[in-house]
Amino acid sequence: MLSIRPHLFASVLLLGGCAAVEAPSQLPSLQTRHDSRLPGAAELPRTADSQLVSAWWLPLQDPQLNALMQKAVARNLELKAALATVQEARAMAGLARREGGPQGSLGLSAQAQRLSIPEVNPYGLEPLVRPPEQRLIGLSQSLSWELDLFGRVATAQAVAERELDMANSDAQAAQALLQAELVSRYVQLRASQQLEALSAQQLAVAELRRQQLQARLTAGLADARELRAAEAEQALRRAERAGLQAQTLRILAVIALLCGEAPATPDADLAALRHPQALPALPLEQTLPSSDGLLQRLPQVARADAALRASLGQVVLAERAHLPRLSLAATVGLNESASRLGQAGAMRYALGPALQWDWLDAGRRQAREAAARAGSERAWAQFEHTVLQALAEAESSLRGWSAQLNGWQDAQMAERAAAEAERYARERHKAGLEPRLQTLAAEAQRLDARQRSLSQQAQALQAFVQVQLALGAWQPA
Q1: Average pLDDT for residues 10-35, to the nearest whole number?
Q2: Whether the predicted model's global pTM rises above the 0.90 cut
Q3: Domain 60-110+134-282+295-470 belongs to what architecture?
C-alpha cells in the first residue's frame, strides 16, 4: 500500500504548538499522491464543467420513480436516525464549546448539627457533658472558571467539531445510499415485471410448439425426443415465471421498507407499483461528472478525514492530561441560624486561584497516551484504505458502466436481427415454404433475444446507479 503519511505530517506538527486541532483537510494533497484522473475511462463522455444536481435520477425520465423518491427521503427510518445523530453531534459540539466558560452555582442548606466532644474539646481541658446543638441555614453563591493554559478545552472543542463532521458525512452517505438503493430496486422491479410478462409469451409459444410436435408425432413425422425436449422447455418456462413472480413480491417488500411502510399493508402509491411498467430510459445523453475534486465529494472519505483529525486531537488530550490545572474560584454566602442570618457575622467569602497537579498516577497517563496513539494509527490506516478504495470503486464503476452500455447496444442489435428473422420465417410460412414449427422457433428466438435485451438494459441501469454513487454525482454543485 502506498504511504500517504508524509502529506499529513504537517498537521501533527501543528498540534504540538497550538491549542486546538484545527488542521485543514488533507484531501487536496492526497490527490497529488493518488491519481484520481481515472485514465482508463477517458473514452466515456464527461465534461469538467458539468453542473451536478442532487436529483441525479431525473435523466431516467420516470415520474413514478420521482414520486417514490420523495416519499422515501421523507419517511425512511434509517435516514431519520442518521439525521437525529447529526442533531445529537451538533448538540455535543455546542456543549464542548461551552465547557471553557465560567460556571456559577447557587446553594441553599438548612441543617441541625451537634459536634462531638473531641471536636469541641480535643485536649479535654474542660469537662463537657454534651456539646451544644446548632441549627444553621447556609446560602452561598460560587463562581469558578478553569483557565485553558495548555489548550485542553480548545482541543476538546475541535474534537467535538470533527465528530460533528463525521455525523454529517454519515447522514450524507445514508441519503446517497438510500437514493441508490431505491433506484436499483425500482429497476429490478420493472425488469422483473417485464420479464414475467415476456415469460408468459414464451410459455404460450412453447405450448404451441409442443402441440405441433404432438401432432407430428401422432402422424409419425417427428421423433419422440423432440416432444420430450419441448415439454422440458415448457416446464422450464413455468419455473422461470414462478421465480419472477416471487422476486417481484420480494422487491415490493424491500421498496415498502425503504419508504418506511409495512410490506403487508402498503399505501396507495406503493400498491400502484404492482402494475407493470416499462423500464426507465437509459440516460445515453447524460454526461458523467468530472473526476476533478472526486475525493472531496465522497462522504466516506470526508468522514475518514474527520476521524483522522479527531484521533490526532485525542492524542493531544492524552499527552496534556497530566499538566497542571489553574482555576479561578469565588464563593460568597451566609451561614448562621435563622434569627441571626442578617447580621454581619454571618457573611463568609472565599476568593483566589486554585492549582491542581496530579503528579502521581501509577502509569495511567502512559496507558492513555498509548491507547490514543494506537487509535491514531488505526485512523491513519483507515484513511489510506478509504482513499484507495474510493478511487478503485470509481474506476471500476466507470468501466462497468461502459461495458454494460456496450452490452446493451449489442443486445439491441441481436434483438433486431431476431425480429427480422421471425418476419422472414412468417413470410415463408405464408408462402408455404416452411412449416409452422420453423415460425414458432423463430418467434421463440426473438423472445429470447428480447429477454436478453431487457436483462442487459436493467444491468446497464444498475451500472449507471453505481457510477453516479461512486463519483458523488448525487451531491449538489
Answers
A1: 41
A2: no
A3: Up-down Bundle (1.20)
